[in-house]
């Protein structure tokens, strides 16, 4: 059953690899500088490494848009996004996986009447505009600088060719690592609130449930790159703009840099240490980044060879993806819940499906790490003890409703307890829980259980 529920996320990872593999090495293959097999194998390994080692930050951000509270619901969200991406990949269009996943999560929020985290959502939407602009600026500046340097170079053509080939391999690997770190949230982020694994120990090293999830998602992306990305390679590498080897090198560098900047927790901490604002850790559309970079090259060349018709088709895919994914998720949740009787959201027992608020809103605790979803077992037990001691034992209906609500909402509290940034909040956590439980008991006695946390 577990493998069946995770199949939606694995299909989404495969779709992402099939679609975005072209973004990693499409320009290089289109410029005939790297063989497809060599590029695909190298990038697959680096994608898995990036997912496991650097996928923490963006997963937390995506989870704060909407925390899916049931494994069945997470499966439907993943399937809806994967179906949208697979359908559009059949037409050879590189679309935004991030937009498809966000659209599906918002569809889950709408179906379950769960408030959407608009702060994180606005940061992600802003990145859809900012990321391609940054990629275009970096590519334009880089291409102009390389072209100026080459005019004064006395290197032999064979030496330049060898350096370019080596550079393409390096930047493709860098882009693959950055893609894994940044976009793993799009593959498994919907399961972050209901991670179905337990910690394991391998060669004396403990592997957390989140890292197990990241590894599986990274492997799914790698399989997509190896088996199906050749279709999109043609669109990105050849149809959009006839790239020279140097232009391909610059495009891949700009693409990898943008994904890395928006996924690196270390880089964001360095900026804050220097007194600068930190970069929001959000999943960036790989398609938008590489297309922005190609557009930057085209502008430097004064649009010579740039096919605006292809640009228009790709832009249409960006707009269509979140709408289709949201509708598909809404319909899929309805079918899963009413036809297959699958639990798509944890029932609070109060105001119906999805009525309980996000714990961050109840207690003012920010969700800052993907580990925010792993405290369910330990913390829900302690909250259950608090509920048992705080609520009237005679009123079993109210007692069960409140206990069930707090158990369902316990999972995301790990961020507050695990995150160093929230160390000052943690000591007051249980005091706040007791305070809310007391208020809930009063409200239940006065207005009935249906008014709790409404």
Portion in helices: over 70%
Order of helices and strands: HHHHHHHEEHHHHHHHHHHH
Structural class: mainly alpha
Rg of Cα set: 24 Å
In whole angstroms, how far apart are the ends? 33 Å
Strands ordered across the widest β-sheet: 1-2
Low-confidence regions: 347-427, 440-454
Q: Outline of this structure?
A:
By secondary structure, this protein is mainly α. Helices cover 70% and strands 1% of the residues.
Describe this structure in words.
A hairpin with a 2-residue loop joins strand 1 and strand 2 (about 205). This protein is globular. The two termini are about 35 Å apart. It has 2 domains: about 1-340, no CATH class; about 360-450, no CATH class. About 70% of the residues lie in helices and about 0% in strands. Strands 1-2 form a two-stranded antiparallel sheet. Helix 1 packs across helix 2. It is mainly alpha-helical. The chain is built from 18 helices and 2 strands. The model is unreliable at about 345-425 and about 440-454 (pLDDT under 50).
